[in-house]
């Protein structure tokens, strides 16, 4: 069954603990935390203090997505405050092998993210070193965007490559995910749906999750 991660990017930040408790009631698999630095993407969001506070109030694994330049400078910090998965961007790393190894050394599962237009061939040599591949299905930086259908081919390639090479990384998508696009991604081989606005704005959040898992 497809796993669900709830992105807090569009949540009510003035009532974040209440939001986390609501997420817990929805029986999801991850809390997805988008960390942005205003340089790699044109937005600034959460830092390690927020991750630490979330970790204090929930046992749901934290899927921390670093949309930042020079992520190697912050791996130890985010690992120490409770990240379970640490995902870095291919486009932001000069020494990607070293960064992925650093994530493992600090006790987290390493994830590798790519933007919608990044050539999938460029990351294949790293796929035996990661626990998760995150395909951005919108341009990273802001929530509430429209799903980019051209990314579906990458999902199919990642799924086929995993099968052909007997690898076990999870495939995750992030951006524009709802009950319709989520099903399309799941059919293309996706394991984890990072869901933001569709869930946060739902009148019935539990029903929204049920629709995603159908």
TrEMBL record:
<feature type="binding site">
    <location>
        <position position="34"/>
    </location>
    <ligand>
        <name>a divalent metal cation</name>
    </ligand>
</feature>
<feature type="binding site">
    <location>
        <position position="65"/>
    </location>
    <ligand>
        <name>substrate</name>
    </ligand>
</feature>
<feature type="binding site">
    <location>
        <begin position="174"/>
        <end position="176"/>
    </location>
    <ligand>
        <name>substrate</name>
    </ligand>
</feature>
<dbReference type="GO" id="GO:0019323">
    <property type="term" value="P:pentose catabolic process"/>
</dbReference>
<keyword id="KW-0413">Isomerase</keyword>
<dbReference type="Pfam" id="PF00834">
    <property type="entry name" value="Ribul_P_3_epim"/>
</dbReference>
<comment type="function">
    <text>Catalyzes the reversible epimerization of D-ribulose 5-phosphate to D-xylulose 5-phosphate.</text>
</comment>
<dbReference type="GO" id="GO:0046872">
    <property type="term" value="F:metal ion binding"/>
</dbReference>
<dbReference type="InterPro" id="IPR013785">
    <property type="entry name" value="Aldolase_TIM"/>
</dbReference>
<dbReference type="GO" id="GO:0004750">
    <property type="term" value="F:D-ribulose-phosphate 3-epimerase activity"/>
</dbReference>
<dbReference type="InterPro" id="IPR011060">
    <property type="entry name" value="RibuloseP-bd_barrel"/>
</dbReference>
<feature type="binding site">
    <location>
        <position position="176"/>
    </location>
    <ligand>
        <name>substrate</name>
    </ligand>
</feature>
<feature type="active site" description="Proton acceptor">
    <location>
        <position position="34"/>
    </location>
</feature>
<dbReference type="InterPro" id="IPR026019">
    <property type="entry name" value="Ribul_P_3_epim"/>
</dbReference>
<keyword id="KW-0464">Manganese</keyword>
<dbReference type="GO" id="GO:0006098">
    <property type="term" value="P:pentose-phosphate shunt"/>
</dbReference>
<keyword id="KW-0170">Cobalt</keyword>
<keyword id="KW-0119">Carbohydrate metabolism</keyword>
<feature type="binding site">
    <location>
        <position position="174"/>
    </location>
    <ligand>
        <name>a divalent metal cation</name>
    </ligand>
</feature>
<dbReference type="GO" id="GO:0005737">
    <property type="term" value="C:cytoplasm"/>
</dbReference>
<comment type="similarity">
    <text>Belongs to the ribulose-phosphate 3-epimerase family.</text>
</comment>
<comment type="pathway">
    <text>Carbohydrate degradation.</text>
</comment>
<keyword id="KW-0862">Zinc</keyword>
<feature type="binding site">
    <location>
        <begin position="141"/>
        <end position="144"/>
    </location>
    <ligand>
        <name>substrate</name>
    </ligand>
</feature>
<keyword id="KW-0479">Metal-binding</keyword>
<protein>
    <recommendedName>
        <fullName>Ribulose-phosphate 3-epimerase</fullName>
        <ecNumber>5.1.3.1</ecNumber>
    </recommendedName>
</protein>
<feature type="binding site">
    <location>
        <position position="32"/>
    </location>
    <ligand>
        <name>a divalent metal cation</name>
    </ligand>
</feature>
<feature type="binding site">
    <location>
        <begin position="196"/>
        <end position="197"/>
    </location>
    <ligand>
        <name>substrate</name>
    </ligand>
</feature>
<feature type="active site" description="Proton donor">
    <location>
        <position position="174"/>
    </location>
</feature>
<dbReference type="InterPro" id="IPR000056">
    <property type="entry name" value="Ribul_P_3_epim-like"/>
</dbReference>
<feature type="binding site">
    <location>
        <position position="7"/>
    </location>
    <ligand>
        <name>substrate</name>
    </ligand>
</feature>
<feature type="binding site">
    <location>
        <position position="65"/>
    </location>
    <ligand>
        <name>a divalent metal cation</name>
    </ligand>
</feature>
């Amino acid at each position: 069954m497809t796993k669900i991660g709830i992105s807090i990017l569009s949540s009510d930040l003035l009532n974040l603990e209440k939001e986390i408790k609501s997420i817990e009631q929805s029986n999801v698999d991850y809390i997805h935390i988008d960390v942005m630095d205003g340089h790699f993407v044109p937005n600034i969001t959460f830092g390690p203090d927020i991750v630490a506070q979330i970790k204090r109030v929930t046992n749901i694994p934290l899927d921390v997505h670093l949309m930042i330049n020079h992520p190697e400078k912050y791996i130890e910090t985010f690992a120490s405050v409770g990240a379970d998965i640490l995902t870095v961007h291919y486009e932001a790393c000069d020494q990607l092998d070293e960064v992925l190894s650093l994530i493992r050394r600090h006790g987290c599962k390493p994830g590798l993210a790519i933007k919608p237009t990044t050539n999938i061939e460029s990351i294949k040599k790293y796929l035996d070193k990661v626990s998760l591949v995150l395909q951005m299905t919108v341009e990273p930086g802001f929530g509430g965007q429209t799903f980019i259908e051209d990314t579906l081919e990458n999902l199919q390639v990642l799924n086929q490559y995993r099968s052909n090479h007997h690898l076990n990384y999870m495939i995750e998508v992030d951006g524009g995910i709802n009950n319709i696009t989520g099903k399309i991604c799941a059919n293309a081989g996706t394991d984890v749906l990072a869901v933001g606005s569709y869930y946060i704005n739902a009148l019935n959040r539990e029903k929204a999750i049920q629709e995603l898992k159908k």
